[in-house]
Amino acid sequence: MFEAAGFPAADDEALTPEQLAERARKQDKEVEVAAVRLLSRREHSTEELKRKLAAKGYPEASIATVLDKLGKKKWVSDERFTANYVHHHARRGQGPVRIRAQLRQQGVTDSEIQQKIAGSEQDWNGLAAETRRRKFGVELPKTAAERAKQARFLQYRGFNSDQIRAALKFDPHLDDQLDIEPEKDVDSGAGFDPDHS
Known about the structure:
Largest sheet: none
Distance between the termini: 41 Å
Order of helices and strands: HHHHHHHHH
Helix content: 55-70%
């Protein structure tokens, strides 16, 4: 990949220290251009950006150098990425359980995720109710089968059992009305289809 810079890729021993430094500088510049190109399209987490650059075949040392530089310039920020991600996906009708799982896949720390989810001004119960209304209409379910179907949908969208009960206007003391699985801490995001509505 870096032969175009005028240096052979595998013949490090034949290069002088100045040539090695120049090659490293050119590698870093190429990695930085690729990273900025990705960031110009949308926010990325540091881990996501690292994976994408590695997949393009860039050296790990150059990736680390560039990500550190971009982090210091605040061009890449896990804090900003997480806040935007929570806001965007909540607007799409996704609940905190699903958002948490997806952010973990992006390499965001649990403490950062918890801080942004708790700190968002999102009314998760209200969002669960609105998501249910958009999918099933204004009228609340009348049968146990309808309630179970709507609860499964909300659970898939990432809402916990309390938020589902609020959306379906359930009495929490009457758990036998509906078989809602307890809130799971999904770390892999398995089964979540971000484009499913």
